[in-house]
Amino acid sequence: MSATLPPRIDAAPLGPVGRRFPVVPQERGGDMALVAVIAILAFLAALAAGTAALVAASSAEWRSALTDEATIQVRPIAGRDEEADIGRTVALARATPGVRAAEPLPRQDAERLLEPWLGAGLDLSDLPVPRLVTLRLDPAERPDLSRLALRLKIDVPGASVDDHAAWLSRLRRVTTGVVLGAFGMVVLVLLASAGAVAFATRGVVAGHRDVVEVLHFVGATPGFVARLFARRFARLGLIGGAIGCLAAALLLTLAAILTAEAPGGPPGLFGSGLAIGPSVYGAMLLLVVADGAVAGLVTAWMVKRFLKTTA
């Protein structure tokens, strides 16, 4: 009598009443520990990604405000009429195409700007405090500020134009560094998640070596066995990623509520407050999917490698 091989397994076995039951035994303690590790890593990654998105949005708001404004500083010079220099500066600025408005800052306001460094209540009347003229620029017609600076140099020797180019460049570099750092942290967290899943998969496969070998012996393909484990760990990765990202989303939402600008109050560090937009939540959703995908792919690779070494 010739021995015949059993049919290949292409689906999970059925129980006595026709319902599917897990071929791979469940380990509640180990599963919960893995979910906790992935949740913590996902929380850190989501927090980094969300913070980077908030910094980028706030930076864009700051750059937009700085791009649409410029400042003329008029330093007092002995022997010259300060108010006449201010009036001449305002007239030249308003006559420049692309300048929508030019308003001189009162001396009291200019002195108030020095209070954070010099302290309040000081008499600065004897100090040569520069006067400021704020310019509102037309975004559709950018003014030639270099030409305005040349005219001011001739007519008002103590005047200089600041178009905030240095601040914009520095702000752009800082924002780029924060975004790249957050991206690197997300990559590192995903690699750490992959390592945790690989370690857990190795332990489960080693603990249920007999189940794997029986499945392989009765004709189950390596792909089928790998999918059994991959589905389980992908589900755990999705659960852990969802928990961590949800916690990060709640924390950032709470921070947005606490940093919201009060009506009539002074603007804060983040302008009108943290802008928790769809992009932030979308990034966290992608991170949840990435956690599940990484867990499934790493598990499948580990199981196939195990079967290859035991074949």
Provide the helix percentage: 55-70%
Strand content: 5-15%
Element order, helices and strands?
Answer: HEHEHHEHEHHHH
Number of strands: 4
Per the principal axes of the C-alpha atoms, what is the gross shape? rod-shaped
Terminal residue distance: 27 Å
Description:
The structure is a single chain. With 311 residues, the protein is α+β, with helices and mostly antiparallel strands. Helices cover 63% and strands 7% of the residues. It is built from nine helices and four strands; from the N terminus they run H-E-H-E-H-H-E-H-E-H-H-H-H. Strands 2-3-1-4 form a four-stranded antiparallel beta sheet.
Break the fold down into its secondary structure elements and pairings.
Elements (H helix, E strand, L loop, with lengths): L27 H40 L1 E6 L7 H13 L4 E6 L2 H6 L2 H4 L12 E7 L7 H11 L3 E4 L2 H43 L1 H9 L4 H37 L19 H33 L1
Q: What is the structure about, briefly put?
A:
With 311 residues, the chain is an alpha+beta fold.
For this entry, give a set of tags.
311 residues, alpha+beta, four-stranded antiparallel beta sheet, disordered N terminus
